[in-house]
Amino acid sequence: MPPAAPERGVYFDYNASAPLLDIARDAVIEAMGYTGNASSVHGCGRATRRLLEDARAAVASSVSAAPQEVVFTSGATEANALACAGRSPSRIAATAIEHDSVLAAAAPGRRIPVLSDGTVDLNRLKVLLEEEPRPELVAVMLANNETGVIQPVTEAASLAHAAGVSVHCDAVQGWRRMPFSMAGLGVDSLALSAHKAGGPKGVGALVVRSGILRQALLRGGGQERGWRAGTENIAAAAGFGAVAAARPPAWTALQAMRDKLEHAVCQAVPKTCVIARDSDRLPNTSMLALPGCDAEAIVIRLDLEGIAVSAGSACSSGKVGPSHVLAAMDLAPDLLHGAIRVSFGPEVTDTDLDAFVSAWGRAAAVCGRRPAG
Questions:
Q1: 365: how many CB neighbours lie within 10 A of its CB?
Q2: Omega into 333 within 30° of 0, i.e. cis?
Q3: How many CB atoms lie within 10 A of CB 33?
Q4: How far is 298 from 272, CA to CA, in rounded Å?
Q5: Three-state SS for 285?
Q6: What is the average pLDDT across 348-365?
Q7: Buried b (16+ CB within 10 A) or exposed e, 350-359
Q8: Three-state SS for 145?
Q9: Which segments of the chain are extended strands (E)?
Q10: 3-class SS at 150?
C-alpha cells in the first residue's frame, strides 16, 4: 500500500506546486473512465477526443487564444524546450532569470541582464537585438518564480518585434494569478503549467501562433498537429481544462496578506531583507533573506515546525550554490545564501501567518553563518 499523503500543515510553497483543486480532481477521475483513444474514429474515440478538445478550448480561452494554438505537453519545461527547439543557441536571447529549461537552450553570451529590482534591462535588450548574429527568439518570463517580480513583457515584445524577432514568454507563475492575454502581452508563444494553479502534475501547454515553431521534440505520431507525438494524457488534460475554465481566485486580495507577513517578519527580525520589496510582484510571493544564514538550514527548521517553503526554485533546490536569479540581481553575497521563497494561496489565514512569523523568529535566533569557502 502506498504511503499516506503527509499533512500539509502551513503550506507556503504554491510556486512549486499548488494543492490540487476539487474541480481538477473530479475532472481527472471522470476522464479516467473514458476508454477510447482520442485518435480513434469510433464512438469511444470520438468521445475521448471531445473531452480533449474541450480542455484545449478552455486553456486557450484562459489566455484569449484560439484552440488550434494550444499544444499539450508534459509541463512547462517541455513547452519552453519546444518553443526554443530547432534554433541555434546563439540565436536565442533570454533573460538571466529564466527557468533552466529556457537557459539551457540559449547561449550564455546571449543573456539579457536584469536590474537590481529584478526586472529585465530593456536597454540591454535593445543592444542585444542589434548584435550579430541577430537573435531569432527573445525569451522573457511573465513573473519570476523565485522573487515574484513581474516583468515588462509587453515592452520587451515591442522592442523585439520592431527588430523582426519572435518572443516567447514563460507565463507559468502568472497564469490564474494575474490578468493577462496572449495578445495583450504581444508575444508569439506562451508556456503554461497546470499544477502551479491547482491542476494535476504532468501536463502543460505551449500556446503558439502559427508559423513560429521550428522543430518537434517528440516525433512519430500526428498528435497535437504533429508537434508532440504520443497518445495524449487525457485525464491530466481534463484536469488542466477544468482549472482553466473555472473562475480565477481573487489573488489580488492576497497582496494585503503578503504585505502583512513582510511587515511582521521585519518587525520580529529586523535584519530580515525582503527581496525586490518595491517591485511589482505577484500578490502571493515573498522572498525573504537572513544575512549570513543558510537557506537550506532555514527551510529544514521551518519544515520541522510544519511549515513548507522553498530555497529558490523547486526545479533547482537540490543544486549546490546560490540562486541564479538572485545572482543576476547582484545581491550581496551574504544574502545570496540566506534567501527563501514564501508563496501561498487563497486559503491562507492569519493563523498561518502568525505561525510563520513565530517560526521565522526562532530560525533567525539559531541560524549559523555559512562556513567560509
A1: 8
A2: no
A3: 7
A4: 13
A5: strand
A6: 96
A7: eebbebbbeb
A8: coil
A9: 10-11, 70-73, 92-95, 111-112, 137-139, 166-170, 189-193, 204-208, 273-274, 285-289, 307-308, 339-343
A10: strand
> Which pLDDT tens digit goes with each residue over 161-181?
999 999 999 999 999 999 999
**Residue 316: count of CB within 10 angstroms of its CB:** 17
- Give buried/exposed letters for 338-347 (b at 16+ CB in 10 A, else e): bbbbbbbbee
Using pLDDT thresholds of 50, 70 and 90, give the confidence band for residue 322.
confident
For residue 157, what is its C-alpha cell? Answer: 515584445
Residue 314 to residues 6, 55, 311, 323, Cα–Cα distance (Å): 18, 27, 8, 11
Candidates 44, 84, 293, 315; catalytic one: 315
CA distance 154 to 165: 14
Half-sphere exposure of 251 (CA within 13 A, CB side): 19
Q: To which residue does cell 533546490 refer?
A: 317
> Do the Cβ atoms of 274 and 341 come closer than 8 Å?
no
Contacts of 19 (CB under 8 A, 6+ apart): 8, 11, 198, 345, 347
Cα 44 versus chain centre, distance:
35
- Which letter does DSSP use for residue 369 in this model? P
What does the block give as the cell for 341?
Answer: 521563497
Residue with grid cell 540581481, as numbered in its chain: 329
Q: Are 224 and 232 in contact (CB under 8 A)?
A: yes
pLDDT of residue 372: 43
Active site annotation includes 315: yes
Average pLDDT over residues 292-305: 93
Q: Which residue has the cell 504511503?
A: 3
Average pLDDT for the chain: 93
- Take residue 5 and report the three cell numbers written for it: 499523503
Rg (CA), the chain: 21
